[in-house]
Design brief:
Radius of gyration: 19 Å
Helix content: over 70%
Shape: globular
Structural class: mainly alpha
Distance between the termini: 32 Å
Number of helices: 13
Strand content: under 5%
Length: about 300
Amino acid sequence: MSALCLILFTCIAAFWFLSNEYPTLFGIYVPVCAVRRITLKSIVAVTLLAGVLLSGTADVSASILANTGAGSMDCYTLMIVLLSSMIVLTLLKFLSIKGSAVYALLGAMEAEAIVSGHGGGAVLLISFLAAPVMAFVLSFFIRSVFRLTLGRTRIHLLTLSYYLKHAVIVGIIITALALGLNWGGFLMAGTPMSNETPVLTVALVAIAIIVMSSIMREESDENAGVYSEFSIYTVLSISFATALSLLFFSFDASAGLLGLKAVPLSVGSLVFASIAGAELSQRSRVVESESYRNEALG
């Protein structure tokens, strides 16, 4: 039964991420055409799995176990948590709102913890609220640096394009690694069996990514219109701001500097906060207000 819980939890989390949050996080790279789509998927898959494998060194798992009732959940309770979160996510999907699988599952876990007398996850709320603010500030700063420095350099355009293309590839790798570290800790804390068999968890994630990547529609279909106006500078600002925010909130040593906790994060909220920061820096709107409202509601 524990193995079944692990399989269901991992596969459902991977499915929701690949069908909803993957396009939001990695769709920003499609318009710049720095790499081919198959190359992008390959880089993300390999680096993401490496991050999940290394997530035992992160503190997200311990933070969830210490501040929610995840550690005391049996398989029956986990099934209730999964069902509850999927009902909410499906309802949001019906309303054309991209809900966060992480927040839905954590909310269901906390509700179960309150019922069973193990509540305490409210202390993580400040970290959830602080992460988008950090992404916003970082994106604003990075985009401002690009605007103030690259516009004054005398680097040949072809040389600059060469460096920026490689910077995009680095951004993809760092973002996927940061996501693996952050979400890997969430997967490890989510099931009773995962801490005992981390290799099995990684194997299940690998299988889920391979299967879902092969059958899901191209990630550019939905986001091409949303991200089509992004310059490569905007893409890099969003990429590094999101990646750095994920890394910052994956370890108590860094999050603790601000008195916060390591937490799993919604990539959608980080991406749109980063977009807002880049927009403020370049003083132009690149995403419609409706997209921000849908992300805030999700």
